[in-house]
What we know:
Strand content: under 5%
Mean pLDDT: 93
Structural class: mainly alpha
Shape: globular
Order of helices and strands: HHHHHHHHHHHHHHHHH
Low-confidence stretches: none
Largest sheet: none
Number of helices: 17
Bound molecules: protoporphyrin IX containing FE, fe (ii) ion
Amino acid sequence: MLASIKSNHFQYESKKLAMNYFRVAIVLFGAQLLMGLIAAIQFLYPSFLFEVFDFNVARMVHINALVVWLLYAMIGSVYLLLPDETGIETVGIKLGKLAFWVLTAAVAVVVLVYIFVQVGPGNEATIWLINEGREYIEAPRWADIGIVVVVLIFYYNVFATYMKGNKTGIVTVLVADLFALAGLYLCGMFFTDNISMDQYWWWWVIHLWVEATWEVFVGTIAGYGLLRILGAKREIVEMWLWIEVLMLFGSGILGLGHHYFWIGTPEYWWEIGALFSALEPVPLVAMFVHVLYDWGKEQGHAEAGQQGHAVNNTPAMAWIAINAFGNFLGAGIWGFFHTLPQVNIYTHGTQFTAAHGHLAFFGAYATILIGMMYLGIQGAHGIKKLTMTFKTKMAIGLIVFGVLGMTVSLTVAGYEQVLVERADLGGGWDAYFIAQELPWYLQAQGWRLTMGLVTFTGFLFLVADLLTIGKTEAAREGEVQAATA
Ligand code: HEM
Ligand code: HEM
Ligand SMILES: [Fe+2]
């Protein structure tokens, strides 16, 4: 990706900016994984880095880095697809570039403060300057306000471009979805000293992001990806997109109830949460079928001038296909497992939740956003047909195997917690620690660490591939052209 700055085939500044967002995303992805490894070691050896870099800090940076890198890659994807869909350069692109640098500087400061100021009082100054204490979105308030300003600039860019350029179905959905996505962030910004109220609104950000607005977002970029990679028919892609929007919002919004079972909210949430969240996998199945259907249908119709088959970017296509499976498995299946209150009363907050969290975030978001990075590289180097290298395959194999391995290990650990800590010992304070010390739990944690190392090795292949594939593939294509000329 670094090389792509120099050999830039992009006509549009918007796409160059997209690549900058992708670069920061990958760096943060690496930081996320390193923090995960530290936290995983601490599960097995609790004295590891004790009082130097404690578990709570490693865990916090792990999941905040996750959210931030996914958001970076999402913004990158929008800047990448906007000129193609609207047919024009992004409006206000200079402002967009400025916003990128401001945001990146702010993220760097926030992360450094997390790392250097690990302990402190829980007062107003801490909330403003150090850490807001809301899981996944811990940024202090000064950064919160900064993020809102930067996002407003981004939204202005998208909206103004939409108003001026072509209004395709994909961008129409995108414009509406981004409005909701950005607006929801505000729900996680104010302070209340009532923990039930705090959790009530905090879930508006977390749940309504990952189970409503982000899912719709993924629908739009999957649609765009299929159009570019397969030459899929726009009518088919967009028709499904609208159906999915309807279904995702239909189930996802009230599905919020599955987080309101035990936090002090009224009991009618049991029924509402159970019914609507159980419906949530339906659109995920539809999306899964949609991607494979389109793929199968369009596959045979190679465009003139293309040899063999119609896939013109195999790494991106592979990651999009993995996304379809991963979203279905991680969010749909692993989510459904624990979404009924009758089950959740036992599984709530166990490693089972972590198993679902890992596979869902990875399957639904990390995968397709990596795919978008490969689409970016293809454009940056003007490559007609980007094919997988050895490194692409190693990255896919190891990352997917590693994350699946971690998920299975955590599921086993969660199963042990449910049986021993919850069912057998009644879920008290002592029960928690007894269950954590039994061999089944520790073995599962050992396997999670091992599979985490596999994932990290895959990540190293991914970085190596992203840095080199553009150049090598462009050179290969040049040779083929020279030979046929
Ligand atoms: C891509 C979409 C999804 C992502 C990224 C995701 C991620 C997560 C994460 C990270 C948590 C843990 C939150 C915490 O720290 O407390 C969680 C909790 C939960 N998720 Fe999902 N999820 C997704 C979709 C779903 C779906 C579709 C369902 C249901 C069918 C579901 C059911 C649940 C439930 C019931 C909990 C609460 C677990 C507990 O009580 O400990 N999720 N999800
Ligand atoms: C090197 C690989 C990784 C390791 C070793 C690792 C390890 C960990 C650990 C130890 C925790 C804390 C769990 C707890 O508090 O009980 C955690 C939480 C989490 N990680 Fe990872 N992780 C890795 C990769 C990933 C990836 C690739 C994703 C998603 C794309 C991810 C998403 C999450 C989420 C969402 C949570 C919060 C889960 C919850 O509280 O329910 N991690 N991870
Ligand atoms: Fe949820």
